[in-house]
Design brief:
The complex is a heterodimer of chains A (328) and B (292). Chain A is mainly alpha-helical and 328 residues long. Chain A has 15 helices and no strands. Chain B is 74% helix and 0% strand. The chains are: A mainly alpha (328), B mainly alpha (292).
Chain lengths: 328, 292
């Protein structure tokens, strides 16, 4: 197990490093002046030269690359072109906003997915089963902005049940830290984005849980439990569901990777002040230092979560270990 | 002879899809959108970019569906039906081109890596891992923001990412097939590696390849719609996502339900029909699913 974790972590480092490298070259391939991605063209001549020197842009490419990596690791991500604030400060609080929304959405998806999958397998081939499959597939085909806007139109514009966007009602006294995330106002704002994220990703866990349940229900130890005369719901929950959970763990790692994309859209629709919204804003006004740093942070998120899921999977199913990464 | 083989193949595929009710629905919808994509210039009643005037002589701004404008108009007085028809063409084009390119990349990655194993496998799969580390939509946004909002950059950016899933799955399946008797026999006969991979292994992966082609097209369409909705679509090639972006920035989401409804319904219809067809293939590629 320890060797497995060490090896996976090593691969993760390589992946992180490669993504950073790819990012470096993408931004250097920029048409026009390649220095335009760190030094704002709006500055005067002297300031531009000074900044170019500070970022090593007047030196050869490999020196720039080393400097870039160093700045990345030391969290020296430059200043925004539009607000001139240090990029790191702009990202700090947005990072947690994004994490919180994503975690809420994914937890909600998993709860409905696992519960729904158990019920569907229980009443297999019933109208409920077929209907839920259909609904899950259609929800998966609806891009999050369609679901999000639909929820906004019905629940916010029409019936005024939920706020139309943002994270807090303007003017409300700001609480800090964890208190903010527990305040009623915040949770009220959280409902619609969470539902939107959850709906989009529901199909994967619910269908996998159903299939995995059906597979387990066909195995010998379930027959044995039935022969012992255990009650059906005991068999369903204690025997089948616990074993059927395993594939969900693998899938949730892949889901998180995809969830980042949906996250960007949901944040945009609900004006959620997270990294996704910042990414879209900075990319559309050519604020390259911010766009670059946000992208890198989102990539780190995906990669680290994949690593955690892999390790927990190896922990839950010791048969797997590194064999899995070789076979899949 | 060749024609006969193609005929048999098509008939076989059609049988797989039509055996499943969802599959039938999916293929009908696909055919419909395909036809609209081909016949675009003849189907659109107006130029999608021209502001139109109603029969009353006023600018036809935000008209709900009526006889004159069957699907309504936008805030600029543009005909939504015509926009829908043109957007269908863009979406179908992006879906097909990036879906096909990405399955070709993914299949070759998977086949080569699974068949040769060893160092090559290690390199190709580590590379796939790196691509898995790329957040999809942010990557699209960055690439499009840097290189410009053109249709072809959108397609290239989508292809860069979408192939990754098919590569892993096809590799796993190649590993399984490689061990089978007929491959060993082909090797003993002295077939070249190239021939074994593409003549012996690949045909056995066909259901899987078609399944993932369908998935890849669906993912490409969703990705393009997402990027366009965020304002990173090609402005001269309108897509459904782009129409919704125009709606969103016009600030008329509250009132113009028709402007929201038609593009949304079409995205859902097209993507879900691809998902339904995939499910029909999944039963073939994964027979355990069928027995249930």
């Amino acid at each position: 197990m320890r060797e497995f974790i060490i090896r996976r972590s090593f691969y993760t480092l390589i992946t992180l490093f490669s993504v950073a490298t790819i990012l470096f070259f993408i931004f250097r391939m920029l048409p026009g002046d390649p220095t335009a991605q760190v030094v704002s063209p709006a500055l005067d001549e002297a300031a531009q030269t000074r900044l170019k020197h500070a970022f090593g842009l007047d030196r050869p490419l490999y020196v720039q690359y080393v400097l870039y990596l160093k700045n990345l690791v030391t969290l020296n991500w430059g200043r925004s072109f539009t607000t001139s604030k240090p990029v790191f400060d702009m990202l700090g609080y947005r990072f947690w906003n994004t994490i919180f929304l994503m975690a809420a959405g994914l937890c909600f998806t998993l709860v409905i997915g696992i519960g729904g999958g158990i019920i569907m397998a229980w009443r297999r081939n019933s109208a409920l089963d077929v209907g839920s499959t259909l609904v899950a597939l259609i929800l998966q085909s609806a891009p999050p902005f369609v679901t999000g806007i639909l929820l906004l139109i019905i629940l916010s514009y029409r019936f005024d049940l939920f706020p139309t966007g943002g994270m807090l009602t303007p003017g409300i006294k700001l609480q800090s830290g964890i208190l903010l995330f527990l305040s009623m106002d915040f949770l009220h704002h959280l409902v619609l984005p969470t539902i939107t994220v959850a709906f989009y990703y529901l199909a994967t866990p619910i269908l996998i849980m159903r299939d995995s349940m059906l597979e387990i229900l066909g195995s010998d130890f379930i027959e044995l439990a039935k022969a012992k005369g255990l009650r059906p719901h005991v068999i369903m929950l204690n025997h089948a569901a616990r074993n059927a959970l395993l594939p969900i763990v693998t899938v949730s790692s892949v889901m998180v990777g995809f969830a980042i994309g949906g996250q960007v859209i949901v944040e945009q629709v609900f004006s959620w002040p997270g990294m996704g919204q910042l990414m879209v804003q900075s990319a559309s006004c050519q604020d390259y230092p911010v766009a670059q740093a946000t992208f890198m942070l989102l990539a780190v998120l995906v990669i680290v979560i994949n690593l955690l899921a892999d390790i927990s999977y190896g922990y839950l199913d010791p048969r797997i270990k590194l064999v899995r990464s070789m076979q899949e | 002879m060749k024609l006969e083989a193609i005929k048999n193949f098509t008939a076989g595929q059609a049988r797989i899809i039509t055996k499943n009710k969802f599959g039938v629905f999916g293929s009908v919808v696909l055919l419909f959108f395909g036809l609209v994509g081909i016949l675009t210039p003849w189907l659109a009643p107006h130029d999608p970019w021209v502001s139109l005037y109603g029969a009353d002589g006023c600018l036809a701004m935000l008209r709900p569906p009526c006889l004159e404008f069957p699907l309504g108009t936008t805030i600029m007085g543009r005909d939504i039906l015509s926009q829908m028809v043109y957007a269908t063409r863009t979406t179908v084009l992006i879906g097909l081109v990036s879906g096909l390119i990405s399955i070709i990349i993914g299949a070759n990655f998977g086949l080569l890596s699974g068949y040769y194993g060893g160092k090559l496998d290690e390199i190709l799969m580590r590379f796939t891992d790196i691509v898995y580390g790329m957040p999809f939509l942010p990557f699209l946004i960055v690439l499009i923001a840097l290189f410009g909002r053109s249709l072809w950059f959108v397609i290239i950016a989508i292809c860069c990412i979408v192939w990754r899933t098919s590569a892993r799955v096809i590799r796993a399946q190649t590993l399984a097939i490689k061990q089978r008797q007929f491959i060993l026999a082909a090797k003993a006969r002295g077939c070249s590696n190239f021939r074994i991979i593409y003549k012996h292994i690949m045909p056995n992966l066909l259901p899987l390849l078609l399944l993932y082609t369908s998935f890849n097209i669906a993912w490409s369409i969703l990705a393009e719609a997402g990027a366009s909705f965020l304002g990173f679509g090609d402005p001269s090639n309108l897509s459904w996502g782009g129409m919704l972006y125009n709606l969103w920035i016009s600030g008329k989401v509250r009132t113009a339900w028709w402007w929201f409804a038609w593009p949304s319904i079409c995205i859902i219809l097209l993507v879900s029909s691809l998902v339904f067809i995939s499910r029909a293939y999944e039963e073939i590629a994964n027979p355990r699913l069928k027995q249930r």
